[in-house]
Design a protein that fits this description.
This protein is an alpha/beta fold and 325 residues long. The chain has helices spanning 3-25, 44-54, 77-85, 101-108, 143-160, 165-190, 208-214, 232-244, 259-270, 296-310; strands spanning 37-41, 58-62, 88-91, 113-115, 199-204, 217-222, 249-253, 276-281. It has a four-stranded parallel β-sheet with strand order 2-1-3-4, with helices on both faces. Strands 5-6 form a two-stranded parallel sheet. The chain has a two-stranded parallel ribbon with strand order 7-8.
Length: 325
């Protein structure tokens, strides 16, 4: 074992021990209500599923809020306390939470940590372009596929809190019906985009499951992980694509800097080709809490409606339920 490996191992064990000690020493008034299951999730999308399925029987906290990039997120001291005190920790997995991976794996050795996306059959997953032995983690971009993750969330809640199984199953069935309606709406509005216009250019490859589900070509400046850098050569290559294929709209993401997208627009303009920002998309995080876009259904409704409208399709400006701003 090298010195660097030893140091990393000791560091991981230190933080896990610290988390356990913090949980023991916390004042009683910090503990969540004992008559509800306390759940910590990494992403807002998973937290939304927990809220929908768990109802009043759960208390849920998401580590990553609006605009947060899960690929680069690192745990804080308050995160460690929250996870150490939780009855259940739910993560996406598939290396989405890259910087949290080691900590979550260690925590799982002593507590209940479930990677809800990793139980989806591999034949339904898209291979990662960044890592030969991994898969694209952005399953939520396809509501039908995300429904499988919701079922995994349901099963994790039942295993942790079996006395509420009947309620969890009923809530899950109602939520899955919402997702089925969402899938029908997104299919309808996105199919109205002309085949030659079905190209989504965005900051990073978060939309591969979207593209696979709806027949869109997806071009990300960066790879699946935002940790990869987009160099000048990549920007130049994509400017060529925009000009040669007459692509006139690109999209920014709420959780990724728009620097590279604006470089594309400027590069195309220098070639005499006008490209506009077709809208802002939610990729790795939902909208603000308390808003429609701050729910999973609202997030996907917003994305599908925005993309369809920007690329010449037919979609109501207020979305599936009339709730979009």
């Amino acid at each position: 074992m090298t010195a660097g490996t030893t140091q990393m191992f000791v560091s991981r064990r230190f933080w896990l021990a610290a988390a356990t000690m913090l949980a023991i020493l916390l004042p009683a008034h910090w503990a969540w209500a004992q008559d509800r299951l306390s759940v910590v999730t990494t992403t807002g999308m998973i937290a939304d599923a927990v809220s929908q399925v768990g109802g009043n029987a759960v208390e849920v906290k998401s580590l990553m809020g609006p605009g947060v990039d899960p690929h680069a997120y690192r745990q804080t001291r308050s995160d460690i306390v929250a996870m150490a005190n939780a009855d259940l920790v739910l993560r996406n997995g598939l290396y989405l939470e890259a910087q949290l991976e080691d900590f979550l794996l260690d925590l799982g050795e002593n507590g209940e940590v479930v990677a809800v996306a990793e139980a989806v059959p591999e034949n339904l997953l898209i291979s990662s372009e960044d890592y030969s032995d991994r898969f694209d983690p952005h399953l939520w971009m396809n509501p039908s596929l995300w429904s499988r993750v919701v079922i995994n969330v349901r099963d994790a809640l039942i295993a942790a809190y079996p006395r509420e199984e009947q309620a969890f199953r009923a809530n899950a069935d109602a939520y899955l019906a919402q997702l089925s309606r969402l899938s029908r709406y997104t299919t309808d509005v996105l199919s109205s985009v002309a085949p030659e216009s079905r190209v989504v250019v965005s900051s990073h490859d978060a939309f591969n499951y979207f593209g696979s589900a709806y027949g869109f070509e997806v071009i990300g400046i960066q790879g699946i992980s935002t940790e990869s850098e987009a160099g000048l050569r990549r920007i130049a290559e994509l400017v060529d694509v925009l000009v040669e294929r007459n692509i006139r709209a690109v999209f920014v993401e709420t959780s990724v800097s728009d620097r590279n997208i604006r470089a594309l627009i400027e590069g195309a303009a220098a070639r005499g080709h006008k490209v506009v920002i077709g809208g802002e998309l939610y990729s790795d995080a939902m909208g603000q809490p308390g808003t429609y876009e701050g729910t999973y259904v609202g997030m996907i409704d917003h994305n599908a409606t925005t993309i369809a409208g920007a690329l010449g399709g037919r979609a109501p400006e207020s979305g599936m339920q009339g709730f979009l701003n």
